[in-house]
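Thanks for the sequence, V.! I ran Sugar phosphate transporter domain-containing protein right away. Repeating your input here for the record:
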Amino acid sequence: MQRAAASLSSSRAAAWAAAASSRHAAGASCSAAAGRRENTMAPPPLRILRGQQLLPLLPLLSGNRARRAVTASAAAAAELPAGDDAAAGGIAGAVELGAMIVAWYLLNIYFNIYNKLVLQALPFPYTMTAFQLGFGSLVIFFMWAARLHPAPKLSAAQLARIAPLAAGHMLGTVFTNMSLGKVAVSFTHTVKASEPFFTVLLSAFFLGETPSLLVLGSLVPIVGGVALASLTEVSFNWVGFWSAMASNLLNQTRNVLSKRLLGGQQEEESMDDINLFSVITVLSFLMSCPLMLLAEGVKFSPAYLQSTGLNLPELCVRAALAGLCFHGYQKISYMILARVSPVTHSVANCVKRVVVIVSSVLFFRTPISAVNALGTGAALGGVYLYSRLKKSKPKSI
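Predicted structure:
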């Protein structure tokens, strides 16, 4: 009996010790997760050079504006379907996803501001495109070299299929930069809100997907809103308008063809979204270099820069931050897309465009008339309706 009691006592002690150890490990893991979330939600504020002083850009979203941005991000995260919630890992996954959406929005805001400031000083869209794609290529090579993501094994046939996508990505970025250099950031993003129109058109042409009548009806406020905003835009410029439209066409062509490429791959040559985007970025940079030299290389020289009287260190800092934000927001966009459905991503992208437009209007103090605001709101409302209809009709575009 004494031996049985001693055995029972030792087993209870072992159980208590195991329970205490598991509670300690769970507490440490929660603390580490909280630290990671805190680091994600509180990045160091980006700063921009103006004259000889460093002015923080974070006050742009301080106070009520920051709360509105976070609220918009939370609303986008709330669009998660039940299946996405399960995939994201419940509450912890939803919090992490919300932090990623906030980072996606902030990087997009900073990119548009830095990029616009550089293009105002140096209207060289081809050079800026090559710089942004080159910066992204350096990050991608570091990612592969450090084995943060496995490098793809590419065949000549795969490169031949990806090359047209890279050309479309490069030209789409060129036209976006061209539009940002000619018109207000808010107007460029209003025009780019017409992306669903090109998605429906190109999906019907390349993929044979027929949209429903409701989806076609959602395109009416998009097209009408863009037209109304264009008619009342103070900074309207035909080059800026058609550049934004060309960017829409090229980017959506890239997306539709990427979908067909990923869907038609064999198992032995399959490539995930991150590597496909990475290869497209590297090829786009290689294609942008000769185009930059041909279009702007002769003009863009040290002698020309000195003749402009610009502050070159300041300009380089802005251009580097624009390149960092450019690659960062695109990479996070792909990470979010891997966690949620395309419909949820589309809704979050619609909210992001609203946040970018409002932020750019506040930062650049862009004059907006009531009719212009109505047109922008109608276009963005049509994009949201389009996204909701895709959710309710998953087989239609």
